[in-house]
Structure to design on (570 residues):
């Protein structure tokens, strides 16, 4: 999948993040290539979600550098000085990065269709008719063509998460972030969400997925990183890391989740 | 389910349904005693209301739809609406300011709420009414510089304006706290989802947070409106002709104090009843999306109940 000449979609260099006195990320180095499905695994509290949230600047990085598509996240560099980006510029950059949350976070005051149409219409100021057509196609694609007029409360968890994926895709992002997209779902409903994600991966979408679904990581993942205690413990191809982990910490984690 | 399933076999087969239970319900003797006592008390009250000539019911009916009282009713409604519009609009702005990250903006909001909640509304009302006596002129222009437009404060702050300012600005302080509670009730994840989609803070406030906060804001706002309807009677102190003012004007001439207070009360009760119904439907509107199914309206409930009676 990697195209040697192209810049990586995401590049992290010694990324540190502190919450008060707790250092959640203690120097993360990694690189996500265009078109890759990049899986982040690790125990809770290992900083994988925090790292994901740094990528679209929902969290501010305290030290180190983080680039998305060759551009620094949250700052502008001029000479050797860093300038914080204005709110408007941060919003601009977020438009190109889709995010799917563990608890869906659909807007309960809008229908499924309303959720999908909201950002393209309000943020990108696209014409309603065009967005509507695209939104209907997206909902159809995630298998919810008949649920357009339902409010989130009238949908199952799996359906809500699929609407959330359609909502993120409606902005036509170049990168998708998934923050434990199936952790809040009944085991029965996990499959339908993973199917949608697999379809996306096949189309070549660059995806960073924080997950506990080892099956998904093994089959759909192009790269996998095991994080613990705010550092990358082990990285490699998912099949190799999962079947043949090198570090003791990775071994003990995998023995519990597999 | 398979036919052989023991749990469902009976109900699907039909004839073997168990007998419907028809037990003798528990008798609540206490309820009957309480009901009897209360009925007697109510009968006494009605008897006194109807027979006591001092209440002068004919006077009550006579004035109920008189021009003076009706003008007062209209003015009371006008005051309530204007004061609540000022209160809600300014209150939401103050709430958003209070939650701002800018310390100056949130500080201004804090001081406003502190001041207007900390002094009695009656004092504020009389203050606004008397303000023209200490202001020489009201002008708009460059601070300490030339002005483009100047006015005699007596023309600008009429009694109506003074009352609306007094009630509205005071209400804004209370509404600010109600709106703030509503905004805080919306989960952090909603704002995060909005910002992840590239929405600005203002966009997510207007499109995502406030509509959801409404569900929390509406019930106490209904309360405030009902309370405001009655608080407008304070305008009597600056001799504004609202409902109580109209009643006062009449009884100060005729000395029929109690009958006219009853007249006013009937109107107040009527108006608050309308507001209560309005509040119910407004709550129902903003509950959509939060509940799978909206609760039935009283009319729907009544229709179903009547319908059910017809079947049995």
């Amino acid at each position: 999948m990697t195209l040697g000449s192209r810049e990586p979609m995401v590049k992290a260099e010694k990324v540190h993040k502190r919450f008060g006195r707790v250092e959640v990320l203690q120097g993360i180095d990694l690189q996500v290539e265009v078109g890759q499905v990049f899986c982040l695994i690790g125990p809770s509290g290992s900083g994988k979600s925090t790292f994901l949230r740094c990528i679209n600047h929902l969290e501010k990085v305290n030290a180190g550098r983080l680039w998305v598509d060759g551009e620094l996240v949250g700052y502008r560099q001029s000479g050797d000085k860093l300038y914080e980006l204005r709110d408007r510029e941060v919003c601009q950059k977020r438009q190109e990065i889709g995010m799917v949350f563990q608890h869906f976070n659909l807007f309960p005051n809008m229908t499924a269709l309303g959720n999908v149409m909201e950002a393209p219409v309000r943020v990108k100021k696209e014409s309603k008719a065009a967005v509507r057509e695209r939104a209907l196609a997206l909902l159809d694609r995630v298998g919810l063509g008949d649920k357009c007029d339902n409010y989130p409360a009238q949908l199952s968890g799996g359906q809500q998460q699929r609407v959330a994926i359609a909502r993120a895709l409606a902005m036509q992002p170049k990168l998708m972030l998934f923050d434990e997209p199936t952790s809040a779902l009944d085991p029965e409903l996990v499959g339908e969400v993973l199917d949608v994600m697999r379809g996306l991966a096949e189309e070549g979408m660059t995806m960073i997925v924080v997950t506990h679904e080892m099956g998904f990581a093994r089959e759909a993942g192009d790269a996998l990183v095991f994080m613990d205690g705010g550092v990358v413990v082990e990285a490699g191809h998912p099949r190799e890391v999962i079947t043949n982990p090198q570090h003791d910490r990775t071994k003990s984690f995998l023995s519990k989740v597999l | 389910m398979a036919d052989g399933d023991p749990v469902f076999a009976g109900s699907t087969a039909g004839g073997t349904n168990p007998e419907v239970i028809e037990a003798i319900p528990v008798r609540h003797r206490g309820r009957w005693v309480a009901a009897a006592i209360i009925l007697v008390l109510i009968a006494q009250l009605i008897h006194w209301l109807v027979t006591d000539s001092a209440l002068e019911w004919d006077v009550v009916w006579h004035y109920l739809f008189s021009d003076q009282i009706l003008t007062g009713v209209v003015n009371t409604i006008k005051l309530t609406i204007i004061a609540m519009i000022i209160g809600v609009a300014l209150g939401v702005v103050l709430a958003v300011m209070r939650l701002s990250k800018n310390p100056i903006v949130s500080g201004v909001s804090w001081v406003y709420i502190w001041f207007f909640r900390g002094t009695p509304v009656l004092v504020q009302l009389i203050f606004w009414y008397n303000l023209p006596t200490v202001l020489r002129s009201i002008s708009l222009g460059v601070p300490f510089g030339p002005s483009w437009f100047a006015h005699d404060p007596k023309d600008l702050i009429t009694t109506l304006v003074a009352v609306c300012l007094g009630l509205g600005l005071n209400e804004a302080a209370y509404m600010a706290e109600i709106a703030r509670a509503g905004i805080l009730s919306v989960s952090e994840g909603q704002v995060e989802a909005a910002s992840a989609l590239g929405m600005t803070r203002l966009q997510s406030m207007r499109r995502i947070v406030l509509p959801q906060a409404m569900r929390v804001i509406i019930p106490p706002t209904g309360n405030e409106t009902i309370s405001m309807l009655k608080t407008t009677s304070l305008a009597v102190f600056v001799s504004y002709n609202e409902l109580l003012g109209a009643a006062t004007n009449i009884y100060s001439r005729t000395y029929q104090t109690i009958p006219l207070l009853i007249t006013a009360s009937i109107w107040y009760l009527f108006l608050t009843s309308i507001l209560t119904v309005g509040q119910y439907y407004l709550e129902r509107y903003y509950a959509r999306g939060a509940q799978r199914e909206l609760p039935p309206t009283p009319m729907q409930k009544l229709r179903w109940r009547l319908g059910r009676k017809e079947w049995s």
User: Anything to note?
Assistant: Strands of chain B lie at 138-141, 147-151. The mean pLDDT of chain B is 87. The two ends of chain B are 31 Å apart (CA to CA). Chain B is about 75% helix and 5% strand.
